[in-house]
Specification:
The complex is a heterodimer of chains A (277) and B (173). Chain A is α/β, with parallel strands linked by helices and 277 residues long. Chain A contains twelve helices and eight strands. Chain B is an alpha+beta fold. Chain B has a domain of 113 residues. Chain B contains four helices and six strands. Chain B is elongated, with a radius of gyration of 19 Å. The two termini of chain B are 37 Å apart. In chain B, 18% of the residues are buried. The C terminus of chain B is likely disordered. The chains are: A alpha/beta (277), B alpha+beta (173). At the A-B interface, helix 7 and helix 9 of A face helix 2 of B.
């Protein structure tokens, strides 16, 4: 067995609200950071906790469309940072999850336009109002990444079982350093391929990254379908993957201390009757 | 033909290839990110070699490069001349780098009169141990079983187990 890093602190402070700021990052692009942020955020919100999802991917805004809230964004994070809009006007509500808000990124600006200290102050403000501040980090390790991590004290590293993603995740873990407590979500696992030795397993990935495992998400059509519709899978009570996201949320909150399940292959009957949408 | 049957009956799963490639590339990455480790390795190498020959310490160079199945350490240490006093290496535990390996032919063939050659130590790093390699840029603590001028050891054909988190150094070197 490999040693794991220190466990993250669980209990939120009671007196003045100081929510937990968690950055979702990966280094490599396209591994599912935004989908993960949307689903984990929705799952956290569904428990009744107050959550704000902050899209830090300025210039390539996507969290709003994955959540299905793209038509409701009126102001974005830079409007708030530059005083062009009030924070409350920029927070987008979600009818499905009343306790969840979205602060969208700007599509027409660049990452260098974000003032690091102002961004940090904004996250601090949000922490006073929300139990969880989830920051969707842009890909790469440049300015956008630095801005996104500076205000967080926890990180979720999303990694797919591919050599490129693992290498980049390893680099990101090094850059995150000791200050942040880091946990891992292995995304897009295909159990059948793992069984046939055609894909790295969760253990293979974590033998390199050596992080506490927060959850494992299967590569399944439901994730794509839910993104198409803008309906987070985490809110679908019938979905196995949705349940995996809800368990991730429970582990973040601290109500679930069980070890994450590794997705299994669909049985013959499940394949025959479709089972999943 | 043999290859064909090998492939049919004993295919190496591509995930094993992925594991091996990742292991090597991350070793290179961590070495590149730990310049202070490489620097002190270089200084130690120079110190050891200086016991026997005068070296041009200012122009020493230690690099790592990824080769087919190993990460190789390349130490380029220009030699200025023999040390006049200590012709005979001291016996006993002072053997410098590779106790098990055959004496390197290239560095030992020069004489005093020859123009200063460079001792090129070409050392395949076999099973490096990285302790806490993921915790920070400068924390890759390396134990390098170095074999001087020996060919790279053949890779084990099938690796069923992942390397443990803290590897015991292998028997070689």
């Amino acid at each position: 067995m490999h040693e794991l890093r220190d466990e993250v602190p669980v209990a939120p402070p009671a007196a003045t609200k100081r929510g937990r700021a968690i950055v979702v990052t990966s280094g490599k692009g396209g591994v599912g950071k935004t989908t993960t942020t949307a689903n984990v955020g929705a799952a956290l919100g569904a428990t009744g906790a107050s959550v704000v999802l902050v899209d830090a991917d300025v210039g390539l805004r996507n969290l709003d469309i994955v959540l299905g809230l793209e038509s409701r964004v009126r102001f974005h994070v830079l409007d708030v940072l530059e005083g062009k809009a009030e924070l409350d006007d920029a927070l987008v509500s979600d009818k499905r999850v009343p306790t969840m808000k979205l602060l969208a990124a700007s599509q027409t600006r660049e990452k260098d336009d974000v003032d690091t200290q102002a961004f940090r102050a904004l996250i601090e403000r949000l922490r006073e109002r929300f139990d969880y501040v989830l920051i969707d980090c842009p890909a790469g390790i440049e300015t956008g990444f630095q801005n996104a991590i500076v205000a967080a004290d926890e990180a979720i590293v999303v990694c797919t079982p591919e050599v490129s993603a693992v290498r980049d995740a390893d680099r990101v873990v090094g850059l995150l350093g000791e200050r942040l407590s880091i946990r891992l979500i292995v995304n897009r696992l295909r159990p059948a391929l793992v069984r046939r030795g055609k894909m790295l397993s969760v253990d293979d990935v974590n033998a390199i990254l050596r992080l506490p495992l927060l959850g494992v998400i299967a590569d399944e059509p439901g994730v794509i379908v839910s993104t198409n519709k803008g309906e987070p899978l985490a809110l679908d009570e019938t979905s196995t993957t949705g349940s995996a996201y809800r368990k991730i949320a429970a582990r973040i909150i601290g109500t679930d201390t069980s070890a994450p399940e590794i997705p299994r292959e669909a049985t013959f009957m499940e394949k025959l009757f479709g089972g999943r949408r | 033909m043999l290859d064909f049957f090998k492939r049919i009956f004993n295919p190496e799963p591509s995930s094993a290839t992925a594991r091996e490639r990742l292991r090597l590339v991350l070793l290179s990455d961590h070495l590149a990110l730990a310049p202070d480790v490489v620097e002190s390795l270089k200084l130690d190498l120079i110190a050891v070699i200086s016991k026997y020959v005068d070296v041009d310490a200012a122009n020493c160079d230690v690099t790592f490069e990824q080769q087919d199945r190993a990460v190789a350490m390349l130490a380029n240490i220009p030699i200025l001349g023999m040390k006049p006093a200590e012709r005979k290496p001291p016996a006993g535990p002072a053997a410098p780098v590779a106790p098990a390996a055959a004496p390197p032919s290239e560095p030992s063939s020069f004489t005093d009169s020859a123009p200063a050659p460079a001792a090129v130590i070409h050392a395949p790093v076999l099973e490096p141990t990285i302790v806490e390699a993921v915790t920070g840029d400068a924390e890759a603590v390396l134990s390098l079983p170095v074999v001087v001028a020996a060919p790279a050891a053949p890779k084990p054909r099938r690796r069923r187990r992942r390397r443990a988190s803290v590897n015991p150094a292998p028997a070689v070197g």
